Amino acid sequence: MKNKYIILTLFIACLGLNMQAQCLDESHSPFKDQGWMSCTESQSPNTIRGNSHWIMYDLGYKYLVDSIKVWNHNVWGETGNGARWIIVDYSIDGSNWEPAGTFRIGKAPGSWKYESDEILDLNHAFGRYFLVTVLEAHDENANCVGVAEVKFNLGIMSDTEEEILADTWTIAPNPAVDVLNIDLGNQSQVDQLIITNSIGQIVTNIKPTRNLLNLDVSEFISGMYYVTIIKEGERENKTFVKMSTR
């Protein structure tokens, strides 16, 4: 499989701030203006991560990502603020997330021409949104955590892979309050769509007539629900949480 690299210079969501990462010929100098730093936890776009130090990248389109390369925080006297452990999640729609892995990042040297060898295998993660959450800094007493830069290594899909990924279907928002949007993508001939509650009771059972569905879930009781599509006898499942407006 052939590969190509892109460098994201704009951090799309950084605790409400737009920031830039610098790239100096594959290396970093120990200046404070080179990188992202978070000193206040906030609610993550992936609800299971809760309040955390995170940064989300919007690639603008869905890509197959083989790996990412990470430069850690490299500022003189502050390398302890660099990330020791991170977790990477990915999503097609920004609402439904899958984990790509948990990774340990080495401490930056705080020196000129810092060249990272931290290449993290994401195992062909397919998505538009990529979320990096810092779980732990190198200095356990650090109040702020950060990294200098992240570079994405994109895989080139074969025709077969593109056909498989074209069948991806999504549900959003998750959690849902009033309306659940279901995008069946290029799924064809879906015979049945069923929603069941946490004890297996069927609350919705329809035969889709179009690929984009907007289902009213306002009367659903708060809790976990399962969305199942049946196509040629095969079943695929997703889950969502119904939240109350109160």
What order do the helices and strands come in, and which of them pair?
Blueprint: E1 3-7, E2 10-14, E3 17-20, E4 36-38, E5 42-43, E6 51-72, E7 83-91, E8 97-104, E9 118-137, E10 145-155, H1 159-166, E11 170-172, E12 179-183, E13 192-197, E14 202-206, E15 212-216, E16 223-231, E17 234-242
Antiparallel strand pairs: 1-10, 2-3, 4-10, 5-6, 6-9, 6-10, 7-8, 7-9, 11-12, 12-15, 13-14, 13-16, 16-17
Report on this structure.
By secondary structure, the protein is mainly beta. The chain contains one helix and 17 strands. The chain is elongated, with a radius of gyration of 21 Å. The termini are far apart. 28% of the residues are buried.
Biggest β-sheet strands, sense, barrel: 8 strands, antiparallel
Number of helices in the DSSP assignment:
1
Stated plainly, the CATH topology of the largest domain is called Jelly Rolls
Coarse morphology: elongated
Total tally of structural domains: 2
* Contiguous uncertain segments of 5+ residues: 1-25
Name of the CATH architecture of the largest domain: Sandwich
Give the DSSP E fraction (strand runs of 2 or more residues).
over 45%
Series of H and E elements: EEEEEEEEEEHEEEEEEE
Distance N terminus to C terminus? 50 Å
